[in-house]
Automatic annotation (TrEMBL):
InterPro entries: Cro/C1-type_HTH, Lambda_DNA-bd_dom_sf. SMART domains: HTH_XRE (SM00530). Keywords: Membrane, Transmembrane, Transmembrane helix. The keyword Protein transport does not apply. CDD domains: HTH_XRE. It holds the Pfam family HTH_3. This is Helix-turn-helix transcriptional regulator. It comes from the Bacteria.
Amino acid sequence: MEVNPVAIKALRQEKGWTQQHLADACAISLRTVQRVEKQGSASNDTLLGLCAVFGVEQKRLLILPEPTDPQIQATSPYQHWILLLCTTFIGGCIGALIMYLVLQSA
């Protein structure tokens, strides 16, 4: 699992802990702590131990992958604005038509 080595090292240093102290607190080896802080590679158990010791949520330590779906990557923010404007315009027209019909029948 890919974790943020900078965040882990920063949290450890904020507490004033050595790598060995962190390893002991998480019940993992010193080598594991060194690998996590250098390469950002950790097992799920190691991640859970780090989160418990630091008192943080997993999302604070994880590096989330970018979406790989080509359709998601190909969508531009401009297309979202066009869709929003069109649906707002159509909704306004439908609302005006309903109000017109209600007023005509009254």
